[in-house]
Structures are given as structure tokens and as C-alpha cells.
Amino acid sequence: MEMVLDDRSAPAAALALTAEDVLARQDRIPVWTLPRSYLAIIGVGYFFTFFDIADIGYTMPAIAAEFGLSNSETLFVALALGLIGYVIGSIVIGAIADRVGRYRTLVVTLTITALGSFLDATATGIVSLSIWRFVTGFGVGADLNLVSTYVGELAPAGQRGRISNLTFLVGILGQALTPFIALALVPNFAWGWRAMFVIGGLIASIGVIARFQLPESPRWLALHGRVEEADAVVRRMEQGARMRAIELPPPQPRAVSAELHAFPFRALLAPPYRGRLVLLAAMWFCWYIGNYGFLGDAATLVAEQGFAVGSSLLFLGIGALGYPVGALLMACIADRFERRLLIFCSTLVWLAGMLLIGAKSDETMLVAGSFLASLALGLYLQVAYTYTAELFPTRARASGFALSDGIGHAGGAVGALLLPALVGATSFFVGFLGIGLTGVLAGLIALLGPRTSGRRLEDVSH
pTM (2 decimals)? Predict the structure, then answer.
């Protein structure tokens, strides 16, 4: 199969053999051989993402009181604008990343999130807060997209799920710690909500500085004719393997078809990617209904059931310990079973959590339900992110992830409105049962997708 490379300095045929060889050498490395610190550095972006997602839910009651916002205005600022920015940022920067590379855009995205979070803290009313929440969402959406794409392209096939989840574990601590930080600041200080955004900005700034030492994806480099640079990264990976006394088998080059386009989304319009895009968008749409409904509205709804705001934050904070537990558990099993099956099983845990919260028979049940819900989030999110990135080709992987996740985030807007409306129209139990069932539907949709665990990315993408 002929490989079409975007390079004007050398014959495409010669480069094709070299690029195929570089990718074959990378694929024979069975373990992560780059510095392990890279996983933590990448995870800082995740940390900010989940810190920010949880942060806005815990700070909005104080922001609404200070700015005199109505319930509809609160939802608009807290969720709608952030989600719009998230979707636009993911799609726009995802397409750019497929053209100019993963590394440079990873630095840009976290810079945008840092700036947005600092500006959130300076808001003086609904207009300025709305603008800055859009900017923050723009960076968050793009960064989450690129992290999953980047890690998947560097990790060995047999450990792609495990390594992705270890990176995610660093990030999910943001969602686990946020309730406790919010509990200490928001109820006790008038400026507490501003301090939360400053903390987020500082975390993102640390991540920006640290990311300058990361390498570019050798898969992206080889695909774009920069084979010598790809070879340098792979040689470094091979050297790391030899230092660990790992015997590398002979490389087995396989044909690679680039078919590069100026507009990466064009590749997604042809089969099999068109069908995969529809499937993944539907999966994420159903999942985000419950995800954003729970994260954005649960604290307020619990408070309306008679619990003090501080107490409801505490209950959800204790439950949030399930995030890292779920991520760690998934890191242990992500490559032992098919990812689509793991996604489905995670949604069953989610349903159990929603049922316990909906019952709200006592504080113990509320905490147990919150723990199961956060456990399910820790189990589901990264394995689903990994699965999404795996189903698209390198030439349009970031774009495919962006469109799937971006379209799916419309479900987040639905969930933010649906849960309070459903609780108001029916009952607390029915509301949480509803978002539990939408989660299970996401798992059922995932079962329709192709097999990916342990397979070479180029094999999956075909």
C-alpha cells in the first residue's frame, strides 16, 4: 500500500519505508520506557480539568449570591457557557493538532486554561464571568482531547489502557480533592470562590512549565514526513528498554496509509470512521447527561432536601474518594478485558450509585451512593477516552475524538437542565434514577463498537 507523506524534500516511496520501520520499532517495545515523570506531567492537565469541572459546581452558590443571579442565569454561566467553550475548543484545536502536532498544542491548551481560570477569579458580574468561563472551557476541552490522543500514541499496545489510566489517576485527584478545598474556603470566606479559581490557575501554570520537556508523538512525526525526528524519539524509547534489560524482537513493518488532508475532518466522513463517530457521539451524549447532572446539580439538590450546604459538600467530598479508587482499579484491569465491556460494567456501578443517592434514606446512604457514583466516574472516564481515541486514524485522531466528545457534550447541557426539572416534576428518586439509566444506555451503545484492547493503533484504525 502506498503511503502519501506531506514532505517536499524527499521521495514519498523512500520515506514510506523509513516511516513504516520507525513505527514498527516503536510497536515492538512492550512497556513504557520514557521517564515515568512524563505521566505525572501529562496528568497535571487532567488534574486541572477535573478540578475545574468540580470547582464550578461547588462555587456557583456563592457566586450566585454575590452577583444576585437567578437559577437560569446560574445554569447558563456555570455549565452552558463552559460547555460551549469546551466543545468549540476541542474541535478547533483538535483539528490544529492533527496538522501541526500534539506537543505544541498541548502547551497552548494548558496555557489557555491557566489564563481562563485566573480571569474567572477577577469576574465582577455575570458578563465578565460568562466570558472567562467560555475561555476556560475552550482550553479544558482541547486539553482533555489532546492528552488522550497523545498518551495513546506513545503507549505500547499491550499497556495502552493501563498507562492511560495511570495518567488519569494523577488528574482525577483533582476531582477528589476539590470538595475538601471548597469546603474549607467557600462557606467560610467571601473571597473563597475566587481563591478556588486562583488555585486552579496555579495548577495549570505548573503544568505548562513542566510540559516543555515532553517529546512529540513519533506516530504524528512519521506520518508527516518528519521521520528523522520520529526516529530520535523511538531510539530514546528503545534505549530505555535496553537499560531495563528488555530484549526487543525484530520489527515487523506494516503498510501505513496517510492520505493527509488540509482539513482533517474529511477523513472522518468515510467508512468505517463515519459509523464510529456516530456511535461514540451517542455514547458520550448519554453518559454526559448523568455526569454533568450529578456534578453540577447534586450539591444544590442535596441541600434543598434539608442538608446544610456545608454538609452536602462534605457528603459529596467523602464520596469523591471513589474517583482515584476507580481509576486505580481500572488501571489494573484496562488491558485484561475488552474496553467496551469495561465501559458497560462501569455504567452498572453508576446506576447503583444513583439509586442509593435517590433513596436518601439517611446520611450513610447518601455518602455510599456518592462514593459509588464517583467510583463509576473513575472507572468509566479514561477507559472511554482511550477507547474513543483508539477508533480513529493518526491523521485525524484528535479531530475524531473532538467531534465525538464535543457532540456528546450536548448531553451535558441536557443533564444540567434535566435533573433539576425531573426532580421538581416527579421526585428526588426518579430524577437520579433517570440519570442512572442514561449512563447504562451509554454502556450498551459502547458494546456495539469494535475490539481494541492490545491491538496496534494502525490495526484498530483500519
Answer: 0.87
